[in-house]
Write a structure and sequence with these properties.
Order of helices and strands: HHHHH
Distance between the termini: 39 Å
Helix content: over 70%
Radius of gyration: 16 Å
Oligomer: single chain
Number of strands: 0
Largest sheet: none
Number of helices: 5
Shape: globular
Structural class: mainly alpha
Length: 128
């Protein structure tokens, strides 16, 4: 029961974080392109890399805490379902260039940010 409560609380935190960050970015850069979703996905990938290193390798955590962080918080924070729907909508509207940009930018930037988060965690922890 404790694991479910922790997952739920982490999910709420991730949802609020996603709502806040995507809203800030969308207000700042507009909604012609899904900048808010892209920002959340890239930030989520960075956090995934950073936290993976910390929780898996540097400070091993229990299965419960790994689930809370990755499934609860990051699962609610990242928005690949929104990414898919927004890309689909761009394609439906005939905006294929923007749809392709969204796919390329989300995937390339996301993978790069996983590596950056992981690398930063290693450097800060003194690992080689």
């Amino acid at each position: 029961m404790q694991k479910l409560v922790l997952l739920g609380l982490a999910g709420v935190a991730g949802t609020f974080g996603r709502y806040w960050l995507s809203g800030v970015v969308a207000r700042r850069f507009g909604e012609t392109f899904p900048w808010g979703t892209l920002a959340v996905n890239v930030a989520g990938c960075f956090l995934a890399g950073l936290l993976f290193y910390l929780i898996q390798e540097r400070f091993p955590a229990s299965d419960t805490w790994r689930a809370v962080v990755f499934t609860g918080f990051l699962g609610a924070f990242t928005t690949f379902s929104a990414y898919g729907l927004q890309t689909f909508t761009l394609m439906q509207e005939g905006r294929f260039g923007l749809a392709a940009l969204n796919v390329a930018a989300s995937n390339v930037a996301g993978l790069c940010m996983v590596w950056c988060g992981y690398s930063l965690a290693r450097v800060l922890s003194g690992a080689r």
